[in-house]
Amino acid sequence: MIQIFKNKNLSWLFLANFTSQIGSVVGMTAFMLYLLRKFSNQPYYATITELMYTLPMIFVFFLVGVVADRLNRKKIAVNCDFISAILSIILLITIMQDWIYLSFGILFLRSGVSKFFQPAQSALLQGILTEDQYAISAGLNQLVSSLFMLFGGAIGTFIFWTLGVEAAIVIDMISFIASGLFILLAKVSKDITNPNGEHKLKDLKFTLVLKDFKEGIYYIINHSLLRSLISGFFLFGVINGGFSVMPSFILKYKLAPSNYEEMLIYIGVAFGSGVLIGSIVGSMLAKKMPLPYMIISGLIVSGLCVIAGGFSNTTYAYIIWQFIIGLALPIINIGLGGWFPKIVEKKMMGRVQGWISPIILFSQSITLGLIAAFYPSILKIEWLHAIVGASLSIVGIYYLFILPKFLRAESIKTVKVEKSVNQ
Predict the structure, then answer these.
(1) In Å, what is the CA distance from 85 to each residue of 41, 90, 107, 110, 130?
(2) What is the pTM of this model?
């Protein structure tokens, strides 16, 4: 893990990812708490906030992958950061003026811009790393995410308590600016930033966008392993949608209504600690255990723990379950992050990523919409946990039947190649 930091470009992209994440976590945590405090009798406001993060993908999903593969990937990532910083300033003004619905609109726009960032960032990372470094990089990214889970929520809550939601949004703005500057410092060759040749925005005619969009789905359909992996991603959106609001809701409306803000910090620390330890364990397992089996075991274990956690009767029991879930989730992410770049061509990464995000975010948006409509009148918090946990386990069981055969085929292919080389 330390060795790959000798690659200066990776270091700059790592710092960009770091600064961008901490601002987003701090700002969104504070905004969620602001809504729960100011509109305590209207929990659907918190759900709408999460919905503003997912819905934009429905409007831009056909563009994000094509843009990442046709335009300069570095410029896309930088512009996404700087535009997000400007929108953070506008968001700050709407909050100060108490224009809550306009705040939702700005969150929607900022989220729409950010959807172009991930495919470009993923493609840049794939280009500057060797195949042997993919799993290490995935472990490193997971480690960073765990640190934000460990400290980001707590920092966001502390800033909200002491300085208010406005200060948290300012941190958002600064983090996006810093992230964009770090990406500018990375010196990436044109074969990575423009693998399909140089194009400008005016070149993206409707026919070209449609052609590239269709190429992306045909590439996935004709790639049996990729198709099998992505087919399980729809339920990941259900999982993400539930996880984004479940801890806040179960604390405020069941386990700790009088001090839920304080308990959210403890849950963040427990979950983040689990993810931090799980990231280290997962990075070691990636060298000794086939990646598909890491994905499968992590999904089934975490799913069962989510179900059990939803029926907790004390805050401390729920915190323990969150710690265990945190241990299991990095194993899934490292497995997927280490395997995915190996099976996707570099020139197609943007278009493949452009299909993954809408699949996940579409189901995430549906989930959040259903939660906003049916919680708590019809859907109880225990059954919300049960649905999310079952989704995790179902994907794990599906992969258990599907992925091992690809692993065996891959092993046979490797043996044949080695024999032909020896001969």
Answers:
(1) 31, 9, 12, 9, 32
(2) 0.64
Contacts of 246 (CB under 8 A, 6+ apart): 310, 381, 384, 385, 388
Tell me the per-residue pLDDT of 112-162, one tens digit each, with 9 for 90 and over. Answer: 888 788 778 777 877 777 666 666 666 666 666 656 655 666 777 778 888
- One-letter amino acid at 87 equals L
Residues 76 and 180: their CA atoms lie apart, in Å, by 10
180, 173, 176: which is closest to 75 by C-alpha? 180
Which listed CATH number (3.30.9.10, 1.20.1250.20, 1.10.3290.10, 3.90.79.10) goes with 3-190+207-422? 1.20.1250.20
pLDDT tens profile 320-341:
998 998 888 878 877 877 777 7
Shortest CA distance to 336 belongs to which of 411, 222, 225? 225
Query: What CA–CA distances, in Å, run from 421 to 183, 392, 414, 416, 418?
Result: 41, 42, 11, 9, 5
Count CA atoms closer than 13 A to 278's CA, side-chain side: 33
